[in-house]
Each structure stands twice: as structure tokens, then as C-alpha cells.
TrEMBL record:
Protein name as annotated: TolC family protein
Top-level taxon of the source organism: Bacteria
Organism: Novosphingobium album (ex Hu et al. 2023)
Signal peptide: 1-21
Lineage of source species: Bacteria, Pseudomonadati, Pseudomonadota, Alphaproteobacteria, Sphingomonadales
UniProt keywords, alphabetically: Signal
Length: 415
């Protein structure tokens, strides 16, 4: 019985010991490995490609779509009693942006690049959130598997001790049957938790194939509240939000586009030159060309549409700000109550271990029935699982808060 108590105490001590990753981030993979995994994720690469597309679009808008058009023709004319004549004409025509339109086009391009860059950073943020969630799922399943494996070992030792007592007629066969039934239940739980661990690892490896993973998951460290303070990190969630920046840039682009379409109510004029030769060169000439579309109801309707879309973009940007503020409040609240719940689970585990020690001593002295000790074993097993789950939830919540505030993995926390 003393061996059983020592085994449980050793497991409790192991679960309480913080485990530091190589870059001093407790329980998390090395930052260099995470950076490489995020860079290789398809969603991040796609967002970066869209940023390159936005920069190219900005260059195109700055240059404008107004290009020189050349038109030419050649005719061989035959006139009765006069003969045939070679005739040709050619003209060059180019539209010109009216004052102010080039500035608006450049502004639209700049807003587009800003929005794309922030969406790319937000895509990296979402990938980091997915990695952290998958990572803690794996470590959580592995922690439960270790608890269940230790429970199997405890029940095996208990069954062996009961069988020795049955052999010397110090216990009934019923006691051995009860111990064996408890062992069978523990083995089923261990098998299921091992399967969940393998599944969580497979999902993590599939989503982030470049992230190095050991065969065995590292231990889950003891949670610690961020040294920066939860309130400070909560403010940074809003201050460093690329989602808000992208939405505001999109609203700015919509406003600039609406102004550009209003400016297009007066169409851009085109200027050019024309040269011609007729009757075999007997008639020659050159002139200046001018053309300008006269706008009507269609351009006014497009301007009204752009105004409405700009208003919608501004409202959407405000909704995004509300959503990010809600996320910040949620992150702070969850970090607080998950940490407090882990502390309560920890206290409960200590109490259960102390109670089990008394039950074991009582059963050894013949004062406690085996059924009572088995009940205590189950309670301690459940307490270990509860503590492990609470520890994972606390670490998950703290990690999410630190990622959302750009304290780790993404962006520059001082930017």
C-alpha cells in the first residue's frame, strides 16, 4: 500500500513541476519552430500573395489606365478617267485624368495595400491561434493519458496486493474480483485516452507538417498569470488588432473609391493628332483631335452606389471593432476564471490524495473495506484528471490572451 501512495505522490509532484521550452515559453514549442510553421501554412502564404497583388494594383492605379491609342487606315481609291490613288490616315489619341483623380487613385491603392498587409498579419494570427489550440489539445490528451496510465499501474499493484492477502486467507475472493473489475475499467479509460492523444497529435501534424514533434508530448507546466498583467494584455488585444486596421483601411478605400466615382461624373477628356494623305498625296493635312464622354444618369447612379457601399464599409469597421473588444474582454475573463478554477482543482486534488492515504492505511489495518479504498482510488483518479483538464484550460486561455495581444509568436509587441 505504501508503494501505491508513493506512486500517486510522485505523479502529483511531476504534474506540479513547470516545464520550460527551449525559448523560455512554458509548455510551448520553440519560437523558431513556430515561426517556420506559421510561414509555411497555406493560409499565411495565400495572404502574402494577396498582399503582393495589392501592391501591384496600387502601382497600376498610380500609373492609370490611360494609354495612347493609335488608329490608322490605308485605302486604294479608283476614280473614273483619273486613275487610282493611294490614301492613308493615322491618328494618336490619349485620355488624360482630370486634376485630383490621380491623387484619389493613389489613395485607393495605398488603402488597398494597407488592408492587404493587415489581412496577411491577421491570417498569421489565425494560424497561430490554430496552432496553439491544436498544441494544447495534444498536450491535454497526453496529460490525461498519463494519469490513466498511472491509474492502471496503481490498480495493478492493488490487485497484486489483494491476491496475496486472498492466498493467505486474509481477504475474500470478492475483494480480488472487485479489484480486478476496477483494473479493467481503468484499462479501458487508458486505452481511450491514448487514442485521443494519437488523434490530437495527428491533427496537429497534419495542419502544421513542418513543426517538429516528439513522439511523446511534453508535460503541461503549472499555469502562471502573465507578468505584464491581464488588463495590460487586454488593452493590447485592441491596440494591436490587425483585424481592426484592415477593416478601417477597407473603409478608407471605400470612401476614396466613392470620391473617385463622384469625380468621374465629369469624364476624362482625350486629346490627339491626326494626319492624312489623299489622292496619292495631292491632298495632305494634319489636325488636333478632342473627345469627351458626356455623363448622364448612369454615372450618378454609380456614385450613389459607391456612397452606400462606403457607408456599409464604415459600419462594418465599427462592427469589427466591437468584435475585437468582445474578444479582448472574453480573453481576460477566461484567463482569470480558468486560472482560478485550476487552483481550486489543485486544492481538491491535494485533499483527495491526503484522504486516499488515510483510506489505504485503514484498509491495511483492516479497519476499512476494500470497496471504500476502491472508491477513494476512483476519486483520486478523477481528481487527477480534473486537475489536468483545468491546467490545460488555464494554459490554453493564457496562451490565447498572449497571442491576441501579440505578446508571443506574431507581430512586434512594442510596435
Amino acid at each position: 500500500m505504501r508503494k501505491l501512495l508513493l506512486a500517486g505522490t510522485a505523479l502529483l509532484s511531476a504534474l506540479a513541476t513547470p516545464v520550460l521550452a527551449s525559448d523560455a515559453e512554458p509548455g510551448l514549442p520553440p519560437t523558431a519552430d513556430v515561426t517556420a510553421a506559421l510561414d509555411a501554412h497555406p493560409s499565411v502564404q495565400a495572404a502574402r500573395a494577396r498582399t503582393c497583388a495589392a501592391r501591384a494594383e496600387a502601382r497600376a492605379l498610380a500609373r492609370g489606365s490611360h494609354e495612347i491609342t493609335f488608329t490608322g487606315s490605308y485605302i486604294n481609291r479608283s476614280v473614273d478617267r483619273e486613275g487610282s490613288f493611294d490614301e492613308f490616315d493615322g491618328q494618336l489619341l490619349r485620355p488624360f485624368r482630370l486634376p485630383g483623380k490621380a491623387r484619389l487613385d493613389k489613395e485607393i491603392g495605398r488603402y488597398g495595400v494597407t488592408a492587404a498587409e493587415n489581412r496577411a498579419e491577421d491570417a498569421r494570427h489565425q494560424a497561430a491561434t490554430l496552432l496553439a489550440e491544436s498544441w494544447w489539445n495534444w498536450l491535454g490528451a497526453a496529460a490525461e493519458a498519463r494519469v490513466d496510465k498511472q491509474a492502471v499501474a496503481n490498480y495493478e499493484r492493488l490487485l497484486e496486493a489483494v491476491r496475496r492477502r486472498v492466498a493467505v486467507r486474509d481477504a475474500a475472493q470478492l475483494d480480488a474480483d472487485q479489484a480486478e473489475a476496477a483494473l479493467g475499467t481503468a484499462r479501458v479509460a487508458a486505452q481511450q485516452s491514448e487514442g485521443r492523444e494519437a488523434l490530437a497529435r495527428a491533427r496537429l501534424a497534419t495542419q502544421f507538417p513542418t513543426l517538429p514533434l516528439d513522439d511523446a508530448a511534453p508535460d503541461v507546466p503549472r499555469p502562471d498569470l502573465p507578468p505584464e498583467g491581464i488588463e495590460a494584455l487586454g488593452r493590447k488585444v485592441i491596440e494591436h488588432s490587425h483585424e481592426i486596421a484592415a477593416a478601417e483601411a477597407g473603409a478608407g478605400r471605400a470612401d476614396a473609391s466613392a470620391s473617385r466615382i463622384h469625380a468621374d461624373k465629369i469624364a476624362d477628356p482625350s486629346f490627339g493628332v491626326r494626319m492624312f494623305s489623299e489622292r496619292g498625296g495631292a491632298e495632305r493635312g494634319a489636325g488636333v483631335l478632342f473627345s469627351m464622354p458626356l455623363g448622364g444618369g448612369h454615372r450618378s447612379a454609380l456614385a450613389d452606389q459607391a456612397d452606400a457601399e462606403a457607408g456599409a464599409a464604415r459600419s462594418e469597421a465599427m462592427a469589427v471593432r466591437f468584435a475585437v473588444k468582445e474578444m479582448a474582454e472574453t480573453d481576460m475573463t477566461e484567463a482569470r476564471f480558468r486560472y482560478a478554477a485550476w487552483q481550486r482543482a489543485r486544492d481538491g486534488l491535494n485533499a483527495q490524495v491526503a484522504a486516499l492515504a488515510k483510506l489505504r492505511e485503514g484498509h491495511k489495518a483492516g479497519e476499512i473495506d476494500l470497496s471504500d479504498e476502491l472508491f477513494g482510488e476512483r476519486q483520486v483518479h478523477d481528481a487527477f484528471r480534473t486537475e489536468a483538464a483545468a491546467r490545460i484550460d488555464a494554459m490554453r486561455a493564457i496562451t490565447r490572451l498572449r497571442i491576441d495581444s501579440h505578446a508571443i509568436w506574431i507581430g512586434d509587441p512594442n510596435d
